[in-house]
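Preliminary data (for renewal application), zinc ion complex.
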Amino acid sequence: MIKYKLICKDCDLKFDSWFASSIEYERLKKKKLLNCHKCNSFKVEKTIMAPQLINSKSKIDKNIDLKKFNKVKKTIIGYQKFIKENFKYVGDNFTYEARSIHYDRKKKSKGIYGRASKRDLKELREEGIYTQVIPWIDENEN
Ligand SMILES: [Zn+2]
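Predicted structure:
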């Protein structure tokens, strides 16, 4: 049995669900048998555990497959490299910058990345500004 943390893309509800295997999860998802308990949406996805949450030594679960974790970490660092080369870092001004790009259509801008709270992202989405959340590893933790 595998326990996955699932998230509903429509209402942001997070819940745990048990599956016989990862294949079972894919099968149920394909058949549209996975839905949100709250709003019945089928846009239910597995959440990727953010590495910074499990990176601190005190919180490392002994059951974590470190080999797998390091592989995932490598992939994330690859994404980060790509993002750093192609996007502009705006730090905590993310929400502000995202709005200014969205509303000022003449302004040509590179894609941006930065930090934003879940609430900010929800507000942006309500304004029709779509963002992508990716797990991020702090370099100084390496
Ligand atoms: Zn939902």
